[in-house]
């Protein structure tokens, strides 16, 4: 059973920064893609950023230039550095891994709240 454990959420003021971490129970090279999604209240879950096995990195337009996805292969961990946070970034952030059979695995989610 694949496990994804997120950490790093919290309350931050507008303009602040947070770094989310997602530790996987198996090598991140096991997955077709790995990244972050978010879901705000009464909204659909949306892609924030992800790596694909082909080397492509995708970002939502709303976070380009502010968020950066990175990874530590030795630690099987993917990070999301979030800078210049806005109230509109408030959501539960989920780590996602997709297998080569297009099965999706999700972490438990971590709350990010941007408020003064």
What does this structure look like?
The protein contains no helices and eleven strands. It has 116 residues and is mainly beta. The chain is globular, with a radius of gyration of 13 Å. 29% of the residues are buried.
Write a short abstract of this structure:
The strands form two sheets. Strands 2, 4, 5, 6, 9, 10 and 11 form a seven-stranded mixed sheet that branches. The protein has a four-stranded antiparallel sheet with strand order 1-3-8-7, with no helix packed on it.
Which structural traits does this protein have?
116 residues, mainly beta, four-stranded antiparallel sheet, 11 strands, globular
Number of helices: 0
> H/E element string?
EEEEEEEEEEE
Q: Mean pLDDT, as a whole number? A: 95
The total of beta strands comes to 11
| Assembly context of the chains | single chain
Q: Give the overall shape.
A: globular
Largest sheet: 7 strands, mixed
Helicity range of the residues?
under 10%
SSE diagram, text form:
Blueprint: E1 4-7, E2 10-12, E3 18-24, E4 33-39, E5 46-52, E6 57-59, E7 67-72, E8 77-82, E9 91-98, E10 104-106, E11 110-114
Parallel strand pairs: 2-11
Antiparallel strand pairs: 1-3, 3-8, 4-5, 4-9, 5-6, 7-8, 9-10, 9-11
């Amino acid at each position: 059973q694949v496990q994804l454990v997120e950490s790093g959420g919290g309350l931050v003021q507008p303009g602040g920064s947070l770094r989310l971490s997602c530790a996987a129970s198996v090598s991140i090279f096991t997955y077709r893609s790995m990244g972050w999604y978010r879901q705000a209240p009464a909204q659909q879950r949306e892609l924030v950023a992800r790596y694909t096995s082909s080397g492509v990195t995708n970002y939502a337009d709303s976070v380009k230039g502010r968020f950066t996805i990175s990874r530590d292969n030795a630690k099987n961990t993917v990070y999301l550095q979030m800078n210049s946070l806005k109230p509109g970034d408030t959501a539960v952030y989920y780590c996602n891994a997709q297998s080569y059979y297009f099965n999706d695995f999700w972490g438990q989610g971590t709350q990010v709240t941007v408020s003064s």
